[in-house]
Amino acid sequence: MTNSPQHRTPLKSGAGLDCTTVGDVMMDVILRSRRSIFDSLNFEGTNYFREFRITPGGSGNLSAAVACLGGEAGLVGRAGKDPFGKAYDDDLVSLGVRSEISLDPKQPTGLAVCLVDGRGRRTMFVSRGANDNLTAQEVLEGLRRLGPSRFTCLSGYSLAFPGHKKTLLRAATNAQDHGSLVVFDPGAANLVRAQSTVFASIVNECDLLCANIEETRALARGSQVLPYSRMLSRKGKLVLVKMGSQGCLLVEEGVAKKVPGVRARAVDTTGAGDAFLGALLYCLSRGYSTSISASFANWFASRLIEDLGPRSFPARPEINSSLAMFSGKSNSVYSLRTRT
Ligand SMILES: Nc1ncnc2c1ncn2[C@@H]1O[C@H](COP(=O)(O)OP(=O)(O)OP(=O)(O)O)[C@@H](O)[C@H]1O
Ligand SMILES: [Mg+2]
User: Which of 58, 213, 272, 318 reaches 20 to 30 Å from 187, CA-CA?
Assistant: First the structure.
């Protein structure tokens, strides 16, 4: 939290961050049950569900994934001055993430109630709370305090509040001015459809677009996913289209390559996209090729969904052997360009 700097984990001297995220501070309440229970919720009586988890979620999932892999991550956001805001910040700090979370005296910490069915699919009820009071000034100050970062990640979920368009664009310009690559995850297809020109303006500014297939369709506005992704990649952007159990599409310099998914027993897909992006950015910032990075990201996300919650990451020994396996297999030498 910005008013308690003693909490911060110092960076190794001279090092920059791998990944800084500007985004939403959300506590997740995840309820898992049979779909029929959710479909027939009874407002008169009491409804019962099978399992639940209360956990920090939101944009911190991405920072947590990078930190879990051994990378250096930072987060700029706003929480309520309440026990959830404190728990969220404490959790990030315990993971070694540099937290620049400011506290709002009036609005509560954002809350997402995630309903997960028996097949691991989920929907969310969200109240954004303090997130909507994050100002451009706070974002710029937070980014300055965090210092250089290889990637600066922006989330389309922030655009649920229209005032945040300017904030994200300013964060993108700031990142570019400091040699950081701008990463954009649109977050949800319905948000893209509701504000297509706003989303197009952020896509235009980004260096790496990581969107799921529905979001990509919505961004393409009538074009097909493949030609649209190729068109963006010819402008120098790296494009990743996430396709659930099918893995992802990696599109660079006009060429699209399908990177197959890893078979998983899906319990809860909440946070799959964040885990995917965290693993991808960690690998890219450590110099792995885009193809190895995408393969590893598919694996990392597939392991996450086998348990409840957005931060049920695999353990370190399993991570290390998987990374060694993927990097031993490929001989691709492409590495992401740096901004000059
Ligand atoms: N059922 C699954 N089996 C295996 N891997 C999966 C499955 N679902 C998701 N993944 C992995 O997670 C990645 C991201 O999932 P998805 O395509 O659903 O993105 P998303 O919609 O952004 O996720 P989120 O729901 O977290 O926003 C996929 O590209 C894939 O690597
Ligand atoms: Mg997503």
Answer: 318
DSSP string computed for 112-157 = EEEEE-TTS-EEEEEE-GGGGG--HHHHHHHHHHH--EEEEEEEGG
Nearest-CA residue for atom 14 of ligand 1: 273
Q: Whole-angstrom Cα distance, residue 103 to residue 101?
A: 7
- pLDDT tens for residues 170-181? 999 999 999 999
Instruction: Give the model confidence (pLDDT) of 188-241 as tens digits.
Output: 999 999 999 999 999 999 999 999 999 999 999 989 999 999 999 999 999 999
Q: How many CA atoms lie within 13 A of 162 on its CB side?
A: 4
Q: Whose CA is nearest to atom 19 of ligand 1?
A: 273
State which of 153, 212, 214, 258 you would mutate to test the pocket of ligand 1, scoring each by most atoms of that ligand within 8 A of its C-beta. Answer: 212
Which residue's CA is the nearest one to ligand 1's atom 10? Answer: 244
Amino acid at 273: G
Pair 278, 317: CB distance under 8 Å = no
Classify residue 162 by burial, with Cβ atoms within 10 Å: 0-12, 13-18, 19+. exposed
Nearest in space to 169 (alpha carbons), one of 202, 210, 135, 203: 202
User: With a 6 A CB cut-off, is 248 part of the ligand 1 pocket?
Assistant: yes
| Type of residue at 91 | D
> For residue 239, what are the contacts with CB-CB under 8 A and spacing of at least 6?
208, 209, 211, 229, 232, 233, 249, 250, 251, 252
CB atoms within 10 A of CB 167: 21
Question: What are the chain's domains?
Answer: 21-39+48-322 (3.40.1190.20)
User: What band does 43 get if pLDDT is binned at 50, 70 and 90?
Assistant: confident
CB-based contacts of 113, cutoff 8 Å, min separation 6: 28, 29, 31, 124, 125, 126
Flag whether pLDDT at 74 surpasses 70. Answer: yes
pTM exceeding 0.90: yes
